[in-house]
Amino acid sequence: MILLFKHKMKYFLILCCLIQGRLIFSESILGNHSAYLDICLNASQSNIFFNNFRSLNDYKGTVECGSEKSDIFYDFLLKNASADTKSHFAEFETLDIIGNPDKKNYQELKNISATTLRYIIFTDHMQKLFNLNNTAHIVEIGAGFGGQCFVLSKLEAFNSYTIYDLPVVQELIKKVISKLGISGVSCMPINNISMKMIHNCSLILQWTPEMMLQTLPMQKC
Is 158 helix (H, G, I), strand (E, B) or coil? Predict the structure, then answer.
């Protein structure tokens, strides 16, 4: 499921999954995870690292979903995803060309990672909750490598998509966005989040409750 959190008349989505009675959260990414940050830096600068960064243990343990969740996510999508979401399955597979993640083969989805399956679940929920269109201004706080943005761009039109993250992580996200050809996306430093940004956007995506608690006190503009 997606948890909907309202703050001063603006909706935040705390992205998590409730599958088979278990609440699965993505872990918070902190700036003192030096091994993770080193991988982001190297992947942004070196094509050799970029081609494999999602297969490296220090990255997998921070951002990627374990492959053991793939079957659960896939079964959930087959039972619950909209016809529109299912019609784009082949396009979603493109995301896993990036970074060489652990993948599995299914009848409806070929060579797909658990992380991408999770992104598809979140996007399917967003479609059902909101009527986004090409005037929407979306903000994502903490974006991994930009995978959620890619999946959402295949299902929903938007005017702009702003990502707030750590500077080193942003460089990797920019490279991924460029490789995937996603338009209308920009990256901003995490410490630039402001109340003006909140009032001007249509939807704010937030990865964990912990990050939400860290972010809200920063909004003092």
Answer: coil
CA 57 to chain CA centroid, nearest Å: 19
In a 3-state reduction of DSSP, which class is residue 109?
Answer: coil
Check: CB of residue 162 under 8 Å from CB of residue 174. no
H-only helix segments in 101-205: 114-129, 147-155, 167-180, 195-200
Q: Is 116 helix (H, G, I), strand (E, B) or coil?
A: helix
HSE-CB of 212 using CA atoms within 13 angstroms = 19
Distance CA 188, CA 141 (A): 10
The DSSP-derived string for 135-147 is: T-EEEEES-TTSH
Model pTM? 0.80
pLDDT for 132: 74
- Tell me the average confidence (pLDDT) per consecutive run of 10 residues in the chain, 221 residues long: 40 44 42 82 96 95 88 94 95 96 94 94 85 80 91 88 90 96 89 65 57 35 23
Q: For tokens 């003092």, name the residue.
A: 220
